[in-house]
Amino acid sequence: MSKTIFLVDDSATILMSVSAILGKAGYSVEKAGSAEEALKKLNAGAKVDLLITDLNMPGMNGIELIKEVRKLPAYRFQPILFLTTESQQSRKAEAKAAGASGWIVKPATADDLLNTIKLVLR
Amino acid sequence: MTHTQAPSAGAAGAAALAVTDDMTVYSARARKEELLSALAASTELELDLSAVTAIDVAGVQLLILLKREAAAQGKTLRFSNHSPAVVETIDFCNLAGPFGDPMLIAAHSAG
Amino acid sequence: MDELTATFIDESRTLLAAMEGGLLQLEQADAGDDNVGGIFRAAHTIKGGAGVIECRFIEAFTHIVENVLDRVRAGDIPVSPGLVSVMLACCDHIGALLGVLVAGQPAPPQEVAAEGDALRAQLGQWGDDDGQAADCADGSTVPLSEAVTASGGGVVSSDAWHISVRFGTDVLRMGMDPLSFLRYLTTLGEIVTIETLADAMPDAAEMDAESCYLGFEIRFQTRAGKAEIERVFDFCRDDCALHILPPQSKCSDYLQLIQELPEDAMRLGEILVRIGALTQAELDAGLAAQAQPTSVEFDGDESGARAPLGEILVGQQAVRQEVVDAAVLKQATVKDRKIAESRMVRIQADKLDQLIDLVGELVISGASTHLFAQRSGLSELMESTSVLSRLVESIRDAALQLRMVQIGETFNRFNRVVRDASRELGKDIRLAITGGDTELDKSVVEKLGDPLMHLVRNAVDHGIEPAAVRAERGKPHQGTVRLNAYHDSGSIVIEVGDDGGGLAIERIRAKAIARGLIAEDAVMSGAEISNLIFEAGFSTAEQVTNLSGRGVGMDVVRRDIQALRGTIEVRSTEGVGAAFCIRLPLTLAIIDGFLVGVGSATYVVPLDSVVECIELQETTTGRNYLNLRGEVLPFVRLREMFEIGGDVPARQNVVVVQHAGQKAGLVVDRLLGEFQTVIKPLGALFQHLRGIGGSTILGSGEVALILDVPALLALVTSAEEKLVSPAPSRGRPSGTPDSQHLILQPSE
Predict the structure, then answer these.
(1) Do C459 and C552 fall within a single domain?
(2) Keywords on this record (chain C) (predicted)?
(3) Interface of B with A in 64-103 (CB under 8 A)
């Protein structure tokens, strides 16, 4: 049974490229173009083994999404990664404080991405 | 969840218990209470781990805690019928020795 | 081009437009951090996307732009007109680079590259080297330790790495399983031995099963460097105690490790011996030496004073500082949230068109089924088809909604046009946009660009007076061009206005007479004269500029608008300003129609324009108007208009239609009821037909013509106007000469 990874990013380019990489690596991929959409899907009972979200999104941002997801009983202990490009320690700390497990620095190679996923998947 | 099996013949106060679900952090709190009270209710407990398909660090430390409690209370606690997932994890953490229970289904160590 | 690249290009163009919009806003007013953030994010996302599709030339250039914007965002660089101009040029350049990518060229051609170099040089004044420095600073905080040299005596016998880790109690709540990290280690090398320590776990009563209390001592053999091993623990490093000793570390390092770890020294010593990190002899010697107050020494080596190689423990203070930073940042992100941008799913336009086509077919066959059901007289069937009709109607609406786009994006393009044009002319003009969220069909929007451009340029060029004239007239120094859009009974109205000089009525009149458009003695209202500018070949510009003095006049604009089944008119007050008002149907594809019959022919009247239906009282023979509750209603007999033969039935009906405030009646034989229909464009053969907007296929398979209500209204009113002032005009004569004074008052 393949693990399901949920991608949340407002960039269609990122969504498409990352899901292509994940799909090729044998993961099932769920996508959402915004934090609001992601929450809706999770609330609707989407089963997800790992959530990967962008931080800078219009509307609800990634940090807020992480906080909300952590409140859902089914996701209390699921790994959550965030995508970040800015080499900002404070941003990382904020996301971690919100309950994120780890991060992926964009632009990441396919190997970086898959390795990080392998690292945190339960 | 867990359920008690028919007490093993012979030893008084001896009980057998099977964990019928995963041993992950999601159920760790409930599991801890169940297993501790099962231990408290018997002098000798055999824990059947055959149905544990997933175990994480929370499960591992629960097993450690139970062993420690049993030792502190002077009771005997045995883990038996380890599922492949449990064998793999106990083996990975190098806890087979400290736990001291024979692990029968250790596929990779069969040779 | 692959799908990913296509997505990137599409997305980047949208982002560039947003960037440009943001920059223009930045120039106009201090729009605050949200705006700068949005501009930065746009550049940032383009750069990220370029990296994904490996388009290096876009990535590299956008990176520089992003760095400067980052510094603007941080407040290091003040916003200045110079900055905005360069940034706008950068937007253009990124657009050009996207063009290079679209063209499939591997690198920008020389002139584009030269432009890029020039911009880089200009950006240089705001310094782009900081970004790179920051990147480096973040890279790795701990230097690699591959240069650990074997230094003879004092080195322990093992050649494996030693990893000592105590996980933070919250690690599970952070969504991490420490075992996942340890298992991941095996992809880098081999775990020789591992020891699980549960010493930190409290008694059963206090033990929280969701907290993590475990620690591990690991002997690890790998070719990987220290940084790579550290990276495995990156995510939990802030709250775990991690020590990594490279192979052949000194005894003293291990002893220092023992001291730093929470567990009892003897017990740790045993563990280290058991897993092979130290020999018993080394341990004994070490512990003995520790017992003495002197510094630790082994085999005469002075290594005790050395800083531990593996020390990467994060100090508590550093963690606290980050928490403080996080709190500050949290407030900033709440602001970010306010920037609501429209979220959308991208689909290819042709897929959408296909869907709309299918919905169109569905509508036709649904209507046909409904007609048959009505004829059959089976009430159950009729009931079910009416439910079906409602559903089809909803599907139609939803499908058309998919094609609806906000006009704001189109409007915003003109910010740049107005800015550049006004600079060129030395005028100070601002563009005021309202109603940007008004939606209309994408196919309409696409064709609206050119006419709007013409009108806006016209307003900037000819409408707004030079500063001196404005001052003379007591107007504000800054001129205003307005773009506005709103919905009005099934139409969308788009207004292009300005507070400039307005139209010079007398000049237009003189010119119209000179061109033979109107008779010298024609009696016309100011509004009528104003609208003469839409006649072919009309141009009032006294000086030809390179902006709108293209020789082509408003006739082209009107033709464009008419092609969209729309109308355009102008309202003007000399010296105060002018406003062009464009009225368009919401969609070109499907309409709700009202079916009418004349003789054997069937016509469709767009339902939006139908006001009411009345029976024709044939008391006003020969007069083409009737009294509608005291109001004069001109009408046109479709039978005459389309030259339909056959007997006139005893009772005829009038469909009262309305468009842009004008009303008229259409005299028909039969009223056949509402009908939903798909518009099929007329073939070239029929395009000269006045009053016909298209055709459709009825459920019965017959073809019905769709009436062009605005055109019919124009015909009716021009026919009546002719009675008032018999100036040269088109349309066939109708009515009687003696009725000419009656047009302004009730007839009966």
Answers:
(1) yes
(2) ATP-binding, Chemotaxis, Kinase, Nucleotide-binding, Phosphoprotein, Transferase, Two-component regulatory system
(3) none
Separation CA B44–CA B78 (nearest Å): 8
Q: Choose the CATH number for B2-109 among 3.30.750.24, 2.60.120.260, 1.20.120.1810, 3.40.1790.10.
A: 3.30.750.24
Asked whether the beta carbons of C708 and C596 are under 8 A apart, the reply is: no
The 3-state DSSP class for residue B72 equals helix
CA distance C44 to chain A (A): 9
For testing contact with chain C, the best of B61, B75, B92 (most C CBs within 10 A): B61
pLDDT band at C290 (very low <50, low <70, confident <90, very high): low
Name every residue whose Cβ is closer than 8 Å to that of residue C240 and which is 6 or more positions away in sequence.
C165, C166, C167, C168, C171, C233
Are C595 and C740 in the same domain?
yes
Contacts of C178 in chain B (CB under 8 A): 57
A108 versus C549: the higher-pLDDT residue is A108
Nearest to B57 among C179, C194, C195 (CB): C179
**CATH number assigned to the domain covering A4-120:** 3.40.50.2300
Q: Do A63 and C175 touch (CB under 8 A)?
A: no
CATH number of the domain encompassing residue C655: 2.30.30.40
Contact C236/C171 with Cβ under 8 angstroms? yes
Tokens found for residue C651:
């009772």
Do residues C571 and C597 both lie within one domain?
no
pLDDT at C675 exceeding the cut of 80: no
Supply the range of the domain harboring residue C358. 349-403
Beta pairing class for C601-606 and C590-598: antiparallel
Q: What is the pLDDT of residues C4-49, one digit of tens each?
A: 888 888 889 989 988 888 888 887 765 566 788 888 888 988 988 8
CATH of the domain at C460: 3.30.565.10
Domain tally, chain C = 5
Question: Which of the 8 DSSP states describes residue B62?
Answer: H
Count contacts between B and C (CB, < 8 Å): 64
Mutate to test the interface with A, among B26, B29, B31, B56 (most CBs of A within 10 A): B26
- Residues of chain B with Cβ-Cβ distance to C208 below 8 Å are 29
Residue C429 sits at φ, ψ, to 5 deg, of -130, 135
What ipTM does the predicted assembly reach?
A: 0.90
- Distance of alpha carbon B40 from alpha carbon B59, whole angstroms: 19
- Contact of C677 with C705, CB cutoff 8 Å: no
More confident residue, C225 or B71: B71
Q: Measured in Å, how far apart are chain B's first and last C-alpha atoms?
A: 34
Residue A85 backbone phi and psi in degrees, to 5: -120, -35
CA nearest C257: which of C215, C229, C221? C215
Q: Are residues C354 and C453 in the same domain?
A: no
Identity at B70, one-letter amino acid code: A
Output the pLDDT for position C406.
84
Do B94 and C195 count as a contact with CB atoms less than 8 A apart? yes
CA distance A77 to chain B (A): 7
Q: Does residue C30 lie in a domain region?
A: yes
Range scoring the smallest mean pLDDT among C270-279, C295-304, C514-523, C714-723: C295-304
C-beta neighbour count of A117 within 10 angstroms: 22
Same domain membership, residue C228 and residue C177: yes
